[in-house]
Amino acid sequence: MKEKTLRxxxxxxxxxxxxxxxxxxxxxxxPYKNYGERGxxxxxxxxxxxxxxxxxxxxxxxxxxxxxxxxxxxxxxxPDNCRWITHAEQQMNKxxxxxxxxxxxxxxxxxxxxxxxxxxxxxxxxxxxxxxDWEKAIKTPVQSRSNPTGYxxxxxxxxxxxxx
Length: 164
Known about the structure:
Elements: H1 6-9, H2 11-25, H3 44-48, H4 50-59, E1 67-70, E2 82-85, H5 87-95, E3 99-102, E4 105-108, H6 109-116, H7 120-128, H8 134-139
Antiparallel strand pairs: 1-2, 3-4
């Protein structure tokens, strides 16, 4: 029986490598504008060889579920500028760009969300989609909806007992 290739042994890592290359090399790829168009490249060694990238990954704490992170956001994909981090850490990196000032104190929006016990996505939607300012988006409590579908209950036994 033939021995498996590294691509066959590490399909998820192969997918990471493939996406990294698409971002930087393929002008038809949606994320290209944020990578290749900004001049971010994949180092020649990794660009030409999955085996080389795979060896680096395994030697540098890769575990399934980790994400590839560039320590210098404007730097290339290369051994000295890359590391493996958790998805949660990656999200914190993205969220770190958004700051809000509330009552004269400036913090990352993510930190305010924890302090006010409100979901970050809710705040983000209020700010970016509905145009609320950060303070209003963070401080306004989420209203619970007793009937989120809006459908009227037709059967008497399904209605609230207090109304029966």
